[in-house]
C-alpha cells in the first residue's frame, strides 16, 4: 500500500524527514600550520564557506578573511542579510589573529574592531553577515563579522 503523503513526508510533524531527499550539510576542514616561516594566511572564500579552520599556530600569526567581493561571488545568489557561520580552532601554542578582508568589518563583543583573536588551544565561532552586494544595487560589496567569546580564559 502506498503512503498517502509520499515517502519524504512525516504526517505527524508535517515536515520532510531528515535524510530522505534532504541533503545533510557537510563541513570542509581547512587544516594548516602557521609559523613565522609560513607567514600570515589569507583564507579563500571556499575555505570560509567550508565552515571549519583547524590551525596549528606555532608563532603568533594572522588569518585574513577574503574580500567582500570574493565572498559575495562565492555565495550562490548572495543578498544582504545572508549569513555564513564558521569556526576557528587553534591547536597551537600561540595566539591567532583573525582579520577582515577589504569590505569587511568586525564586531567583537560590544565594540567594532578590525581584528579578533583566538587564544592558544582554544576555539571561536564566527558569523559573517552580508551587508552589501554590488551587483544587487548596493553601493559596494560588504560584510560584517560577529564573534562570540573564546573557549579559553583569554577573550578578544
Quick structural summary:
The protein is mostly beta strands. It is 8% helix and 42% strand. The strands form three sheets. A seven-stranded mixed β-sheet has the order 3-5-7-12-13-9-10.
Description:
With 156 residues, this protein is mainly beta. The protein has one domain (27-147). Helices cover 8% and strands 42% of the residues. It is built from two helices and 13 strands. It has helices at residues 45-50, 68-74, and strands at residues 9-10, 15-16, 28-34, 41-42, 51-57, 61-64, 83-90, 96-99, 104-108, 111-113, 115-118, 122-132, 142-147. It has a seven-stranded mixed beta sheet. The chain is globular and about 45 Å long.
Q: Which short descriptors sum up this protein?
A:
156 residues, mainly beta, seven-stranded mixed sheet, four-stranded mixed sheet, 2 helices, 13 strands, 8% helix, globular
Strand content: 35-45%
Multimeric state:
single chain
Low-confidence stretches: none
* Helix coverage percent: under 10%
- Compute the separation of the termini in Å: 60 Å
Q: In terms of topology, how is this protein built?
A:
Layout (H helix, E strand, L loop, with lengths): L8 E2 L4 E2 L11 E7 L6 E2 L2 H6 E7 L3 E4 L3 H7 L8 E8 L5 E4 L4 E5 L2 E3 L1 E4 L3 E11 L9 E6 L9
Parallel strand pairs: 3-5, 4-6, 5-7, 6-8, 9-13
Antiparallel strand pairs: 1-2, 7-12, 8-11, 9-10, 12-13
Amino acid at each position: 500500500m502506498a503512503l498517502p503523503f509520499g515517502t519524504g513526508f512525516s504526517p505527524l510533524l508535517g515536515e520532510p524527514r531528515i535524510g530522505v531527499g534532504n541533503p545533510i550539510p557537510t563541513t570542509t576542514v581547512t587544516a594548516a600550520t602557521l609559523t613565522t616561516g609560513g607567514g600570515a594566511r589569507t583564507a579563500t572564500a571556499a575555505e570560509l564557506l567550508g565552515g571549519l579552520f583547524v590551525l596549528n599556530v606555532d608563532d603568533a600569526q594572522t588569518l585574513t578573511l577574503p574580500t567582500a567581493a570574493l565572498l559575495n561571488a562565492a555565495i550562490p545568489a548572495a543578498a544582504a542579510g545572508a549569513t555564513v557561520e564558521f569556526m576557528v580552532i587553534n591547536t597551537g601554542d600561540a595566539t591567532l589573529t583573525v582579520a577582515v578582508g577589504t569590505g569587511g568589518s568586525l564586531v567583537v563583543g560590544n565594540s567594532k574592531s578590525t581584528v579578533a583573536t583566538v587564544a592558544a588551544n582554544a576555539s571561536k565561532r564566527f558569523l559573517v553577515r552580508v551587508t552589501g552586494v554590488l551587483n544587487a544595487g548596493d553601493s559596494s560589496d560588504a560584510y560584517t563579522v560577529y564573534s562570540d567569546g573564546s573557549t579559553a580564559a583569554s577573550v578578544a
